Amino acid sequence: MKFSLARRSYSSLNTWLPFGFMLLLLFCSPPKKNNNRQATNQSSDIAALYANNCGGCHGNQLQRFKSLKSYQQPEEYLVKMISQGNLDKGMPAFGEALSEAQIQQLSQYIRTFDYNKSHDAKPHNDSTYTYEVVVGDLEIPWGMEFLPNGDLLIAEKKGVLSRFSKAKGKQEISGVPAVRADGQGGLLDIKLHPDYAENGWIYIAYSYIDEANRGRSNTAIIRAKLSAENKLQEIQPIYRGVPTVSAAHHYGTRMVFDSAGYLYFGIGDRGQRDEFPQTLNSSNGKIHRLKDDGSIPEDNPFVGQANSVTSIYSYGHRNPQGLAIHPLTGEIWEHEHGPKGGDEINIVQKGLNYGWPVISYGINYSGTKFTDITEKEGMEQPIHYYVPSIAPCGMAFLDSDVYPQWKYDLFIGSLSFSYLERLVLNGNQVVYQEKLLEELNSRVRNVKVGPDGYLYVAVENPGRILRLLPR
To answer: What is the pLDDT of residues 47-60, one digit of tens each?
Structure first.
């Protein structure tokens, strides 16, 4: 995997898109046995191209097509979708980039792929760790959080919030708000208040439906308390992103509390890169900071500035789906999806501009450029970026002694390549990368350190929560 390191500037850090990235599926057939060396090499190159560019939406083995049964759509529907696209779903039009014959071949490939045998797990051969299944039978587990007694809260993207205990198994929680479970939207992250044992507040992020126009949505956060009967009660609104849009992707959203008790979270650009990330009059394409009750800290960087959303802490972000507090420095680390290439890891600082889409190490999914520059004065460089994209989701620093050789390493899930990545750091530089759980061929949606010090990993296809065990 190619990657680049950049020194941090101290002068100023799925999900699934229905039919997204279909362009490159045409070239994704696994290499077939062939005596023609040129044909074999071409097939191999094409398979790698698919993995680098399409897996973030559909999985390396077209898992999302299988789980949603999209491949059962009529061929003419797929041909039209590929040719004309659907921007609200994040699907660009490829009618000008692909020939009619290529689009036809792409449609046939999707419909004839062997969905029954393609993504079985491989034998686990790593000598340093193994894993066990903690919770099974899940559908896209997006958020997870441990209660003080060890029970696990699980948010499934479709809108189901559950509580899992060893004694009672998985129990659904009632009172969850209505979500727009479409595209990348749905029930998203969960976070406990730092003083949960005293106040009982649980924070829940989701894609809310605009009641004035039900075809539009954005990201919202509520807080609530959990009754003994597994019902949300005392629900309080904390935040609603504005404006709502018709697009069903780039909701962003992870939540963390810092040591001062402030709540941080990200909202993506909502698929409108040229309108939102570089302006301060919308919530989109930003990292936000709130007090625990949803009010605005007086020292937020844009408080008092005209035409600005005062919850904004930093801006110029594309689609943040990872947020974590460094256990030694207390800094806020964030990762976000790039387009085709250009996923970033950043350290979020107050009031700074992280450049999207003015600067980027990525290009359009169709292969064209949207910017010619990767650096600009007044815009932050990532401390690490990915080319090709890994489609990062979930993020955690390991601060326990369960795995002594991994302590203080950073762990990030990959949707595109279906593995958990371990990053070894030297200060703020990534000096080593290792792929874990690669044999599962399952998109990694989240990673958490449990109260027992073990790493818990949420995967898709099939949806499960795993616990990593050192050998």
So the answer is: 554 555 455 566 66
